[in-house]
Design a protein that fits this description.
Keywords: Membrane, TPR repeat, Transmembrane, Transmembrane helix. InterPro entries: TPR-like_helical_dom_sf, TPR_rpt, TTC36. By secondary structure, the protein is mainly α. It has two domains: 97 residues, Serine Threonine Protein Phosphatase 5, Tetratricopeptide repeat; 85 residues, Serine Threonine Protein Phosphatase 5, Tetratricopeptide repeat. Helices cover 85% and strands 0% of the residues. Helix 6 crosses helix 7.
């Protein structure tokens, strides 16, 4: 009996194989087989394209990164070039023989500052150059805005303590010239910080003394003038301030 069962199973195997072979000859089976082959080919093509894309990305990304770094480097050099040219024009404007020439040179210095800022908007020095050029042209409110930009993040981070102290002094000076009565408190705040950061600026001490005098804070004014005299013993403004206070 067992031999007969094995024989029947063996006989069944060729029958199944013949059935599969027969199905392979039918149009439906051939169509399914063709669809499977097309799907395999499509998957292989997609994998190939994906691989090529990854290789391209791996090679092009460092090039783009280096290119951006080079552009930033060139921008920084260009910014410094325009800043130096603007500073030279401003120096010439301050020593110009007449006001017309001074105004024209100051305007050119302002333009160079704008060009420097177009390459590096975070450069506080260019903002300060712009403020000084605007002040020389008589545009004090605009100069204040430029100094505000220089003394605000992120530009202020590029200044040393002494440079920041000098910029604060200049801003206080402009605040007083624009509106002494309304801006005296802001000026005092800037000047207190200025003399901490730039202790050798006798003019900042003197202006601080004048602001305190305006507010009738005589003791504070006296200390400010004495600070100026300690820095510059021959300071006329400090001596006159102390004389007014009866010292």
């Amino acid at each position: 009996m067992e031999l007969e069962k094995v024989s029947e199973q063996n006989n069944a195997i060729p029958s199944v194989l013949r059935q599969l072979h027969t199905q392979g000859e039918t149009p439906e089976f051939k169509e399914r087989e063709m669809m499977m082959m097309n799907t395999d080919i499509l998957i292989q093509v997609l994998l190939l394209l994906l691989g090529l894309g990854m290789v391209f990305a791996m090679h092009s990304f460092p090039k783009k990164l280096i290119s951006n770094m080079r552009l930033r480097g060139r921008g920084s050099v260009q910014a410094k070039r325009h800043f130096v040219l603007g500073a030279q024009l401003l120096a010439r404007a301050r020593s110009a023989p007449n006001r017309t020439t001074a105004l024209n040179l100051a305007k050119d210095a302002n333009n160079e500052a704008d060009k420097a800022l177009s390459f590096d908007p975070k450069d506080a020095a260019a903002h300060i150059l712009k403020a000084l050029a605007q002040d020389l042209q008589g545009h004090k409110t605009s100069a204040l805005k430029s100094l505000d930009a220089a003394l605000s993040p992120p530009a202020v981070k590029s200044l040393s303590d002494r440079e920041r102290g000098d910029a604060l002094f200049k801003r206080a000076e402009l605040q007083i010239s624009v509106n002494r009565r309304r801006r005296v408190d802001s000026a005092i705040s800037d000047l207190i910080e200025s003399v901490k950061l730039s202790q050798e600026n006798s003019k900042a001490y003197c202006l601080l003394g004048q602001c305190y005098e305006q507010k009738e804070m005589k003791e504070e004014a006296r200390r400010a003038y004495e600070g100026a005299r300690n820095v510059e013993p021959n300071s006329v403004a400090a001596r006159e301030g102390l004389d007014r206070l009866g010292s």
